[in-house]
Every structure is written in structure tokens, then in C-alpha cells.
Description:
The chain is an alpha/beta fold. It has 4 helices and 8 strands; from the N terminus they run βαβαββαβββαβ. Helix 3 (about 70-90) packs across helix 4. The longest helix is centred in the middle third of the chain and has 18 residues, at about 70-90. The mean pLDDT is about 95.
Amino acid sequence: xxxxxxxxxxxxxxxxxxxxxxxxxxxxxxxxxxxxxxxxxxxxxxxxxxxxxxxxxxxxxxxxxxxxxxxxxxxxxxxxxxxxxxxxxxxxxxxxxxxxxxxxxxxxxxxxxxxxxxxxxxxxxxxxxxxxxxxxxx
Length: 138
Ligand code: SF4
């Protein structure tokens, strides 16, 4: 059986981002079609609606643009998405850059000005902790 890869669902063309858009990448779609990649959107799995308010990480909490603390939904969503990792035995993930859930290495800094800071999204952090190899995609 070939290696399975978890991918951010928005990279696979699903319109699951906060603004109902996707960030479709042809090579990721092909991986899904070939049965190698499994798309997940941890934000939706955490019970957040689409569309939804954008959120950024401020001092280890996930806060929407109008100040609602959605940390618990993010944590629940990451745990739900983790079930897919465990079910498929995936050892690698390709995740959407800069997102407070899927970002790897750098994320928006919490000021809603488009600035970045070092850090990982909530789902990414969980995967790294569990030894899953993470790759970031713009
Ligand atoms: Fe894409 Fe991840 Fe955000 Fe879902 S949580 S929209 S998969 S970046």
C-alpha cells in the first residue's frame, strides 16, 4: 500500500476557507485523485461555519477579527482531523501556509495587518508533536 498524505482541503480545491474560497493546486488534486492524499479541513471539522470570520493567533489563543475566542473550536477540529491521520496511517502532511490552523513555520501575527511571525497553526503543532512530517504550501 502506498504512503498516504494528509492535505489541507483548500489546497485540494474545496471551498472551505473562511471566505468560501479554495487555494487549489493541480498537483495536490492529482494526489487526491490518485488515492494518495486525503483532504481535511480542521477548521470545518471543529464546527466552524463557512463562510466564517478570519482568525489569527494572539498569545497562544485563536481570536477572530472581531475578538471572539475560537481556540476551543480550533483544538477540537485539530483532534478530529487527527482521526483521519490515524485512520489512514499517514506519515506526512502538506498544509496551507500562514493559516492559524494549517500554517507551518510562519503564521499571521495576530494584528490583522498581513504581517507574519514565526509559529505553527494549531493542527500543524499537533502533527509535529506526533512526529508527522509537515510540508507547507502557499
Ligand atoms: Fe484550508 Fe486548513 Fe484553513 Fe481548512 S483549516 S481552510 S484546510 S488552511
